[in-house]
Write a structure and sequence with these properties.
It is a multi-pass membrane protein. Helix content is about 65%, strand content about 5%. By secondary structure, it is mostly helical. The termini are far apart.
């Protein structure tokens, strides 16, 4: 499988991510994509060929293998990586839409135009919501695939011996999984990295919401202080006019005293 497109996607979205998002991208690319491409595909490459059962009954081997491995781990992880990384494309598309809108606005009004966005990549307005929704979607995808992996295989363990009673097997037959310990280690590793990615996405959502709340509170506080200062200046000016204080500017032509 060619992961060049996925690598370009992760590199592009890295420019618009927070610190938590960059750590998430590093973990996904180094500890999930690279491990999947370099090691996992080779570990599961012989799973069906080396799945042995102590019977020569035609069809029993295939039925037992399908019963214990209804979906390949490798294909399940490939789907998970695709679904968990593609939402990042929405952020890139949204930024591209902003840049195109800004370019058309400049062509319409010339060089002295008023900018629509001060920074097209800054997470404000619709882009902020797009980024939050992609994080929620990533959390949902990772959590769903962790559950599916546990539900389909009834856990994350690989026993070296499994007993099969499916038809057309003549009786209970013993089947042996190839390299069960190695498969168990890689399965636990992928599940743990998925949990770490979920935690990082949750931290990033909390960080973005907290940062936005702080900015709104700071903006309201600044506006309130400015409003109070304007009222204080107006009250002082009224007092000076009433009392006829010498605090008037000493320019009788511009400010004649009454």
């Amino acid at each position: 499988m060619n992961w060049a497109f996925l690598q370009a996607l992760l590199s592009g979205v890295n420019r618009y991510s927070t610190a938590f998002g960059r750590v998430w991208l590093s973990i996904v690319f180094l500890f999930r994509v690279m491990v999947f491409v370099v090691a996992a595909e080779k570990v599961w490459g012989d799973e069906q060929k080396d799945f042995k059962c102590n019977t020569a009954q035609p069809g029993c081997h295939n039925v037992c293998y399908d019963h214990f491995f209804p979906v390949s781990h490798v294909r399940l992880w490939a789907l998970q990586l695709i679904f968990v990384t593609c939402p990042s494309l929405l952020v890139i598309m949204h930024v591209a839409y902003r840049e195109d809108r800004e370019r058309k606005h400049q062509l319409k009004y010339g060089d002295n135009y008023r900018r629509i966005y001060q920074n097209t990549g800054k997470k404000r307005g619709g882009l902020w919501w797009t980024y939050i929704l992609t994080l929620v979607f990533k959390i949902g995808v990772d959590a769903t695939f962790i559950y599916l992996l546990y539900h389909i295989y009834e856990g994350y363990d690989f026993p070296p011996l499994v007993k099969c009673t499916q038809d057309p097997c003549p009786n209970t037959v013993d089947c042996f999984i190839a390299r069960p310990t190695e498969k168990r280690i890689f399965t636990i590793f992928m599940v743990v990295t998925s949990f770490i990615c979920i935690l990082l996405s949750i931290f990033e959502i909390v960080y973005l919401i907290g940062k936005r709340c702080c900015e709104c509170f700071s903006s309201k506080t600044h506006s309130l202080n400015s409003h109070r200062l304007n009222w204080a200046n107006l009250a002082t000016l009224c007092e000076l006019r009433i009392s006829g204080s010498d605090c008037y500017p000493k320019n009788p032509q511009k400010h004649p005293r009454k």
